[in-house]
Design brief:
- The chain is mainly alpha-helical.
- The chain contains 17 helices and no strands.
- 78% of the residues lie in helices and 0% in strands.
- Helix 4 packs antiparallel against helix 5 and helix 11 packs across helix 13.
- The longest helix is centred in the C-terminal third of the chain and has 41 residues.
- It starts with 9 loop residues before the first helix and ends in a 21-residue tail after the last helix.
Length: 538
Amino acid sequence: MIERPTASDPSEKAAGPQRLLALLLAMAMFVLVVDTSLMNVSISSVVRDLGTTVSGVQAAIALEALVSAAFILIGGKVGDLIGRKRAYVLGLLGYAVGASAMAFAQSLTVIVVFWAVLGGIGASLLLPAMQSLIHGNFEGEAQKKVYALVGAAAAIAAAVGPLLGGFITTYLSWRVGFVLEVVVIGVVLSGIRLVHDVPYTGPRGVDLIGAVLSVLGMGGIVLGILVWQEGGEAVGALLVVGAIALAVLAYWLVRRKRRGEPALLDPDLFRSKIFKLGISGQMLQQIALGGTMIALPIYLQMVLEYNALQAGLSLAPLSLSMFAVALLAGKKASDRRPSGIIRWGFVLLTIGIVALIPIVPRAEFGWGLVIPLVIAGSGLGLLVSQLNNYTLAPIEEERISEAAGVNSAAGSFGLSFGLAFAGAIMLATLSLTFTAMAESSTVLPQAEQQQVAQVLEDDAEVMSNTQLEQLLAGEPPEFQDEIIRINTDARPLALQVALLIPLLAGLIGVFNSFRMMRIPEPTPKSPGEGPDGAEYAP
């Protein structure tokens, strides 16, 4: 006779706290994802309140993603050494400090130091620790459900983030949004006693040189782009340092592996063609997303002069279609090849961006972008539903955490690169176009043309016509009208060129997906089996 569990049954007692812990982990992920959405739709408000520039805020957004990417591999190792629970708490506290600073910031410097840098480091500690804690605090079906819940929280945050951020910014303040983030983090930390630490049993050696090379590699490339965008010097040197550091990192990891010494990550992971194609697909998807999500909010807020809520509503077709398609594909695509779905994802993403480019100079309202955004969002949804599973499927269980860290780093680096490069290209195009139009003007005198060129060389900036009219107050009416006309014509072209970055990422992704189709589908590996089926010692 099978006894039913009584009220004192330990398994039943544990179910309640475990459900609460799963909910708190999902809340932490929600805050992590919604944070950047809030910044994207609040750009114009942040610029106005802090008296800063669009390019400065855009650079801070890209820097936050870059810091997260550059330190995420190190963050995983720190969690191994100090304890995953402690790393989880430190990550949440880093995010809370960054959000608190945003609530009271009076300058862009505060945003860069506390939100972008400290918050990015917090994310690099939080993400790997969260995965390990889910793995160690839940078993069997419960573990799968928690992974699904946390993934759903991320997807929901991506879908509603622009709307939520737009509503809060328009009717309250963008600062209130960050105060609410701190409140949610406080709630999550209040349940920290429910988290059982997960001990690390692997090697405790630290690859300091590998860690430094990874930061220099990813950091040098994206910082080089940001410095170029701001008109700084030594751009070439930063890019060269980044490229060389990445090349040396690859050599260094192989060398450490051959000597049996602890390495930042196992280079044998890259023996799998599936893993290499998967992380490159992840990076390309995030480049496309980052480029789109910096160009469109700027277009909506600076060209159409939308407030944050209007911008959020205009972006909703992209985020909501991405969420809906990801959910549908996750449930219905079990009998289809993941590589085929990934190919269609990149195809739809590319078609959506191609359709957006000619619409930008002609659309007089945000809803004119609906159809291209739905197509692009559907493509992103297909990618979100398949890329992680495709990439990690050939990796054996004991290396899944490390492989997931590499996958997350590739995605974060792609996001920061897309944000930085699309923004830099947009401002460079704006500067060149505005200067060329000013120099060819028959209305502006020579001295005025030179002044416009000098101002743009010092600080190229996307400005609304209303802002420009205020700046030109006191100038002769014919000069005002001519500069407004030039601004009206130059901005759409700059935004169109910026959209070429996600378009190029989508095209490369399509090419990449055909290579995926030529490889047999990935199958989960057992312990001791290498990424491509080769046996090696764990």
